[in-house]
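Sanity check. The docking grid for fe (ii) ion depends on where the pocket ends up, so I'm generating a full predicted complex first rather than guessing from homology. Inputs follow.
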Amino acid sequence: MAPTSSTLAAPLQPDIEYHPNEEKWRVRTARRLAEDPLLPTTPLPRGFPQKLESPLVWKGSDWMDESQWVYELNESQLKEIDDAVKYFNALNQPLGYVSPTTFPLPTLSPILSELSKELHTGRGFFVLRTIPVSSYSKKDAILIYTGLSSHVGSLRGVQDHNNAIISHIKDLRNSHPEKTIGSPAYTTDKQVYHTDIGDIIALFAFETAHEGGTSRISSSWQVYNDLAASRPDLIQTLAEPWPLDGLGGTPAYSMRPLLFYEDSKIIIQYVRRLFTGFHGISRSTNIPPITEAQAEALDAIHFYAEKVALGLNFQKGDIQFINNLSIFHGRDAFVDTPEKTRHLLRLWLRNEELAWKIPTELQPTWDRVFYKTSLVEQQFPVEPEMLLMKGAKYA
Ligand SMILES: [Fe+2]
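Predicted complex below; grid placement will be based on this.
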């Protein structure tokens, strides 16, 4: 008998949470493979490569020593930075006007340009060490961070509906109701592997945690190769449209793939919490659930990324730059004390000369983040705030 509307059950959200559960992942994988043993013979999406060959493909175990990715600033470079602070402050301009011209770094600028090339065509990450944070006011520390970053990528992305350019990554549960917090950025929780928005992410350590909070990165190009070799069906799943939660905004959800192959480059853009909810904000119930295949793919990304990740020894005064299109990032849970309260600042950057071609489906986001706000409108909140994206009700 053909099913009628009364016998057809609406699809349910799979049993999956923000924090990945390895046992649930293995059980789901075994069940799906038992139901369809031919899944691993699924062809890759048309045109997608069997294997990426690039310095962007790496495993954490490939790196022996942090001197391979940490660039230590010397005394004369720190003096150059200090001179640039004085130069910019004498101009009496809003911070939105910080640029390689208004924050001049005669000898450091060519080095930062080379490091930016490393982000786009090399290993995809580096760390600058050490900005003497405690020697500056918060505003000048933000100026240094913004100024140095402008030599890596001169376009800065807006991170909320009020044109905030800086976001503060800090546990804000003391000042904000738990029910309003939907992002681990504002808690002490572990953050699973994910990407942000934009070409480059810069993170500046104002202060590190009393314990834990290790920053971890993982090459999504390596994860792509591993998945393409073992589970090409999950590559197919990732390249199909997914329902992204609009977090109480309008529209309630949007559809797009998480994985793209554009201009001979694999690009992944995804945040797990938009498919699982997080903390005080559950996944919206008035939007389509994800599928079992998508749930498996989410866990596979996380656990494959975890296996090849690199933990960074992120110190107070460090700035970490990563290629957000080819590297996942995450962090361990942490414990703060009044003396050691983890506090990072984040910028989203784009270097137009070196930038990759952005897939059509992501272009509206890039337009909104990088091309709609004038320099004078850019805001640089000095104190931590919870940022809301345009249209969203929750962070
Ligand atoms: Fe992030």
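Relevant for the grid: The two ends are 47 Å apart (CA to CA).
Also worth noting: DSSP finds nine helices and 19 strands in the chain.
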